[in-house]
Design brief:
about 260 residues, alpha+beta, Endonuclease, Chain A, Arc Repressor Mutant, subunit A, 8-stranded mixed sheet, about 55% helix, elongated, disordered N terminus
């Protein structure tokens, strides 16, 4: 038998972990497309298993009702910018549910770690016994209660247009699979978001490179990551500097050559 140096062994382990993560991210992206299409179809053809809810007041009322009637768990995915009024409206129902020993698991994007009002709310939720994790990109906005009822936006691009209340088992199964995939790779709030030991990239920076490399504009990539176009430009400038690249095109080539993508 031939001894393997620690460096070689570690490099192999990291390569395997990165391949597994890339596979999970690809599966998550495919699931996102499938779930979005499924929900959009049901929004057009509501049945006994679906109900359209229009207006933020009506949506908040339904969310409060779902929280009050939950018996085991509430799963929530909240991508993008979180408005203070929406978070404040959620507090009574969240406090009541946690007081009844209901499990609450909430997913946010990494960008919220730099949004003070979201951080305050998330730490408040943690203090009451809830679980909060973040990831560069997460599923579409959703709330799933007791794995039997869900609320999802009619239009994923603008959740204020209305919501679809769903009890159809097929859609619920897809939403739950989608949520659990994202949860398994997300980082608990309070933990440090890990950097790639070889590249020094955070998961969000790696995802930004992937999104821009796939042809998305700064604005579109920023929307997926929950950050502004200006922040996209700032992060890309930092990545280009680390790569010693004079353009984004050159940065993409060098990142691929280094195995960052």
């Amino acid at each position: 038998m031939r001894a393997v140096s620690p460096e070689v062994g570690l490099a192999g382990m990291l390569a395997l972990q990165e391949a597994e993560l890339a596979a999970r991210q690809a599966k998550l992206a495919a699931s996102r497309v499938a779930v979005t299409r499924l929900v959009a179809d049901r929004a057009k053809h509501t049945s006994a298993h679906g109900e359209r809810i229009l207006g933020m007041n009506a949506i908040h009322s339904r969310l409060e009702e779902l929280g009050r009637t939950a018996t085991t768990e509430v799963l929530s995915s909240q991508p993008g910018v979180q408005e203070p009024e929406d978070l404040n409206a959620s507090r009574p129902a969240d406090a009541d549910a946690l007081g009844r020993n209901i499990t609450i698991r909430t997913l946010y994007q990494d960008a919220v770690r730099k949004q003070p009002h979201v951080a305050v709310y998330a730490h408040w939720l943690l203090g009451l016994g809830g679980e909060v994790r973040t990831a560069p990109t997460i599923p579409q906005r959703m709330v799933v209660v007791d794995r039997a009822r869900a609320l999802v936006p009619i239009d994923p691009a603008d959740h204020r247009k209305g919501a679809l209340y769903v009890t159809e088992p097929g859609i619920l199964t897809a939403l739950l699979d989608f949520f659990e995939q994202a949860w398994s790779t997300a980082v608990p709030l309070g933990a440090v978001v890990p950097e790639d030991p070889r590249s020094g990239l955070t998961p969000a920076e790696r995802e930004l490179l992937r999104l821009l490399g796939s042809g998305l504009t700064d604005e579109a990539a920023g929307q997926r990551l929950g950050i502004s176009s200006r922040t996209v430009g700032r992060q890309m400038s930092s990545i280009m500097e680390r790569l010693g690249a004079g353009s984004r095109f050159e940065a993409g080539i060098k990142a691929a050559q280094k195995g960052w993508l």
